[in-house]
Specification:
Blueprint: H1 2-23, H2 31-56, H3 62-106, H4 109-117, H5 122-145, H6 150-176, H7 180-207
Helix pairs in contact: 2-3, 2-5, 2-6, 2-7, 3-4, 3-5, 5-6, 6-7
């Protein structure tokens, strides 16, 4: 009986060791990449869609909307890449300086090397942010490219962007293990507000004859 109990305890410990890393996984480690990817994609989606809605408020030409959206895509991707690079590099410098101070006190150089390897890479973060922005910005551009009627084009852009925002919110919630409804609702309402404000203000300014 004691032998059976010992075997059961051993098997239980083995299962705990097998499932432990997954159960104890720190999802905050995904934060840096998740933030860069979701922020870049949603920013590209909302920024370019808002620009296209704004120009669509005063011009009915599809070419003007596409050119405006493409300019926003290029400028936004460059801005996101540079901003992410500077931000992550600054964070890395602060963490490296802190590691040096801590390890100088403890006298452990090997630990400092391993900790440096675990730090986020500024170039990779910048590239991920720029690529995510481009992918998000392509959604409203492709949605509007083949629609001739102006009113239908605006409606298609809003509908397509809304679906994409929900998908981005769901992806962010899935990888971050956060509430799905809350995440989707937050990003959807934010996107609607950005498009509505841009459309309304541009329409108002255009009506004044400036």
């Amino acid at each position: 009986m004691a032998a059976q109990n010992a075997i059961c305890i051993s098997v239980s410990e083995d299962k705990t060791e097998q499932h432990g890393p997954e159960d104890e996984f720190d999802y905050s480690q995904r934060g840096q990449w998740l933030r860069a990817a979701v922020l870049g994609a949603s920013d590209g989606l909302v920024s370019v869609a808002s620009l296209m809605m704004g120009i669509g408020a005063v011009k009915h030409d599809v070419r003007a909307m596409i050119l405006t959206g493409f300019a926003g895509l290029v400028a936004g991707a460059c801005s996101m890449a540079i901003g992410e690079f500077v931000s992550v590099y600054s964070q890395r410098d602060v963490e490296v300086a802190q590691m040096k101070r801590d390890n100088r006190t403890a006298g452990n150089n090997n630990e400092e090397i391993s900790e440096k390897e675990a730090l986020p890479n500024p170039i990779q973060a910048a590239a991920a942010s720029a690529i995510a922005f481009i992918l998000g910005a392509m959604v409203p551009l492709l949605a509007a490219a083949f629609i001739v009627d102006h009113t239908v084009r605006l409606g298609v852009v809003v509908a397509t962007v809304s679906v994409a925002l929900v998908v981005f919110g769901w992806i962010g919630a899935l990888f971050g293990r956060t509430p799905v409804v809350k995440s989707c609702f937050r990003i959807l309402v934010g996107g609607w507000m950005a498009m509505a404000v841009t459309f309304g203000l541009t329409k108002w300014i255009g009506s004044t004859g400036l």
